[in-house]
Design goal:
The chain has 207 residues and is α/β, with parallel strands linked by helices. It has a single domain (9-206), classed as Ribonuclease E inhibitor RraA/RraA-like (Glucose Oxidase, domain 1), CATH 3.50.30. Helices cover 26% and strands 25% of the residues. The chain has helices at 22-29, 64-69, 95-103, 118-124, 178-201; strands spanning 9-10, 41-42, 49-57, 79-83, 91-93, 108-111, 114-115, 128-130, 132-133, 145-146, 149-152, 155-158, 162-166, 169-173. The strands form three sheets. Strands 1, 2, 3, 4, 6, 8, 10, 13 and 14 form a nine-stranded mixed beta sheet that branches. A three-stranded parallel beta sheet has the order 5-7-9. A two-stranded antiparallel ribbon has the order 11-12. α1 (22-29) crosses α5. The radius of gyration is 18 Å and the shape is globular.
Length: 207
């Protein structure tokens, strides 16, 4: 029996964007603001999230800033976005920290780094996008910073930016460009829907 697909996780204040997936979000930006194309993957392929970012700038192989974010605390319903780990060989988060963020109401976690306790995170049901997995824990010595802005996989992400993540990857919409990007996405959706209607009408079984 095939498992039922998971419903999308929609963060606080993002119900009006539930129809936008990562490919449509990328098309709306002309391919800009895609974090680590081809590398950012969800731990479960059926996970999908739309939400607003709360950012953490960590340091290579160091996740003290992520620990400090628990004390901030993050806004309920946000997507925690952690940068600074694109070349780290240690884990940004594990299952204990993920539990803490879930208890605080964080909708999902996106990091350009690695994670550990992968199976436990899948079982927890906390959607996570990352560069891969590792058993190795990070050190905790450099505080980095929590909130404001962060560089995540080469993309600048600010608190309140919009995050679209699914099995195709992770796309960021700057909040200052929201109206224009919604218009672009709507136009692309309408064009694609019309094309799909034509394709289905010309499918072999309909001839």
């Amino acid at each position: 029996m095939t498992a039922s697909p998971q419903p999308p996780m929609i963060g606080a204040g993002c119900d009006h964007l539930a129809w936008v997936n990562a490919t449509l979000a990328s098309d709306a930006t002309g391919g800009r603001h895609v974090i680590l194309p081809g590398q950012m993957r969800p731990l479960r392929p059926d996970w999908r999230v739309v939400g607003r970012a709360f950012v953490v700038q960590a340091c290579q192989d160091d996740n003290l800033a992520v620990n400090n974010a628990v004390k901030a605390p993050p806004p309920s319903g946000c997507v925690l976005v952690v940068g600074g780990h694109a070349t780290s060989r240690t884990a940004t988060i594990g299952d204990l920290m993920a539990h803490e963020f879930r208890n605080l109401g964080v909708a999902a976690i996106v990091t350009d780094g690695l994670i550990r306790d992968a199976q436990e995170l899948r079982d927890l049901g906390m959607p996570v996008w990352c560069r891969g997995t590792t058993p190795t824990a990070s050190v905790k010595s450099d505080p980095g910073h929590v909130g404001g802005s962060a560089v995540v996989g080469g993309i600048v992400v600010r608190d309140g930016d919009y995050v679209f993540a699914d099995d195709d990857g992770v796309v960021i919409w700057p909040q200052s460009e929201l109206d224009a990007l919604v218009g672009n996405a709507g136009a692309k959706r309408d064009t694609d829907d019309a094309r799909m209607i034509r394709l289905r009408a010309n499918a072999p079984e309909n001839r």
